[in-house]
Amino acid sequence: MADSSDGRSQKERMLAGDLYVADDPELAADNRRISAWMDRYNASQTLGQPERQALLEEMFGSVGAGCNIRPPFHCDYGYNISLGRGVFMNHGCCILDVVRVSIGDLTQIGPGVQILTADHPRDPVQRRRMLEFGRPVTIGANVWIGGGAIILPGVTVGDDAIIGAGSVVTRDVPAGGVAVGNPARLRG
């Protein structure tokens, strides 16, 4: 177990980005709740955008007007996700939101994109103790992320940036930047 001598719950430790144990009963209950929601959301293919928007508003931290996430969609908790106005995510996206994920207005995300905040200690002793931690991801406004891209923990992508399809983004991308490849590198 993570040191809990500071009196914080595992959920409080997770939300702070500190080491925590993911299979804690409180977090497991949150995960069951989002799993039931994903069952409903991922069966919503025949619903229109307004009905899916209402479903997003049930579980996400905040949702701007006109958001559209095409099912299937997967996430860890939902309550750490904030979407700006008009965000679009295509089929098969996954957000591991153990800490904050913020996506700005009018950002477009291709199919199969992964946005990951969950990370694991490099120390093998800590990993054996089933500890993990999170680092927030921030994606600016009017960003275009190509299909199959992976955004790793702690990355910030600036406004108006482009992430090429299949890219693995390991470092911040500045506003207006174009990043492609594995690992993603800035072009031009």
Automatic annotation (TrEMBL):
Keywords, in A-Z order: Acyltransferase, Nodulation, Repeat, Transferase
An example Gene Ontology molecular-function term: acetyltransferase activity
Location of the Maltose/galactoside acetyltransferase domain: 11-65
Pfam families listed in its UniProt record: Hexapep, Mac
InterPro entries assigned to the protein according to its UniProt record, in alphabetical order: Hexapep, Hexapep_transf_CS, Hexapeptide_acetyltransf, Mac_dom, Trimer_LpxA-like_sf
GO cellular component assignments: cytosol
Similarity comment: Belongs to the transferase hexapeptide repeat family.
Role summary: Acetyltransferase implicated in the O-acetylation of Nod factors.
Protein name from the UniProt record: Nodulation protein L
Lineage summary: Bacteria, Pseudomonadati, Pseudomonadota, Alphaproteobacteria, Hyphomicrobiales
